[in-house]
């Protein structure tokens, strides 16, 4: 953005400025009137010129202005010229008119391309595209009320220098839309890991949820909020400092290796609940000696150690290789050259377990590799307890409270015309008591009111398969998936099924390309008139027929062309259908595909059947039902 002023001394800033969203490289929505918002001298007259279209207004008493320009066809690049009658002016360059989507949610929306780059090794070489641009808002909360402007954000184009900070799901969504429509796609990305849906709702949307609003009111007091932040920091530091002071491994330099005969043997990876470390909290040191062949020695290498709970520090031959401070990121460390040597090498991992739920996640990759070879690190390790501790004090996640994220990261975006909303959230709400279906409906209605569009598309991702941390949450994820399926009955919504794109042992699956492309398929159908298939088989109705041995249930499906069962890695049998009787006893039933239907055989009589369920589980046991377009059927409950 270039600033000019004839009233200011050189170096002074012009009193005329625009919203953050209107800066060099911006994308403006092509289907709605263009909003030019900004700030200037109260009472001054502001004039804007955009591609030969002119508008003007007077700056209000509070210093703000908005000029609405007509709908503009897609294209660009354009310049926006803004001036006032006090001789101040500015120019915004390289503006495109295209499709703008607001993408929000928790960590799976927030997951950056950097995190999944190993799953998409060619992305850097083919990501450069002037027609994909992202405006990312850094995490922020405000409990005082909705902000007019986000506290951060700038437009960045898809290119190697920027792409790694893009949301992976949003990027692949934009990429597919661009490929199919030719439009410039602008992503406004506002998300935060761990956030709950009520953090993204306004006070008005939460009317009647008195407990949530009371909590939000508490955090409106800056002194209280700052006190909670300090308390978190102080208690965490004190806990870790105390553990470090007691840790025999720190005192005795176990990072260089240990062999005094007191160490024990453990096979890794393992969930500690299934080992002698069950319930352990504190620090534990692991050691593995392995042989490196001559051709791998002296060369840089990659060390992959899956994921761990909770934090780790890794040493190779006494040298610190890397560390990770919490459980979710994959442990992928770079070994510098000259650290590996031919013959025996010693790998040591110090793991801190904060609340008795430690693990080296089974099913992940644990190996060291370079261009000359691969060394498998699974199997027998030695370990010693460094120090035992009580659980770490519970953290007050102050950014997750009701209304806070909405006020800071969503409300400002509702002043920007958009094509639609993409929502990727639910994991953190699954264990909570709040009615997720009701909250989702409130979100849809509330967002449409604020964006002044009763038909604003709302696309979202249903929870995937997952098992690792759900032992204490039996039934919670299936119940939330059903809430999501029911939310998809709202008009102008589109849900994508991801039961085949999760990872049973990872809350943050890497299959974001297909997530993005399935979301794009929904958008292409709903917004851009595509005639291609966009969703999986859907239960339209069912018929129950009495038989000699019980009942036969026929579930008639739509979107079922080429209906079949995927073998995946769990076989091609349908093992995930069940019926629930009037006593609430659930029984698995045999199932098979016939034309556009699923046939179930059960020993129950028609009058005894209360519910019919498909995949009402954390993960699938058998194959999944797909149509010929490759879209899976959603889990469901039919009553």
Features:
639 residues, Rossmann fold, alpha+beta, 6-stranded antiparallel β-sheet, 38 strands, Jelly Rolls, Immunoglobulin-like
Notes on the protein architecture:
The chain is 17% helix and 34% strand. The longest helix is centred in the middle third of the chain and has 25 residues. It has 4 domains: 97 residues, Immunoglobulin-like; 246 residues, Rossmann fold, CATH 3.40.50; 144 residues, Jelly Rolls (Sandwich); 101 residues, no CATH class. It starts with a strand and ends with a strand. By secondary structure, it is α+β, with helices and mostly antiparallel strands. Strands 1, 3, 5, 6, 8, 9, 10, 11, 12, 26, 27 and 28 form a 12-stranded mixed sheet that branches. Strands 13-25-15-21-18-19 form a 6-stranded antiparallel sheet. It contains 10 helices and 38 strands. α8 packs parallel to α9. β29 and β30 form a beta hairpin. The model has no long low-confidence stretch (mean pLDDT 96).
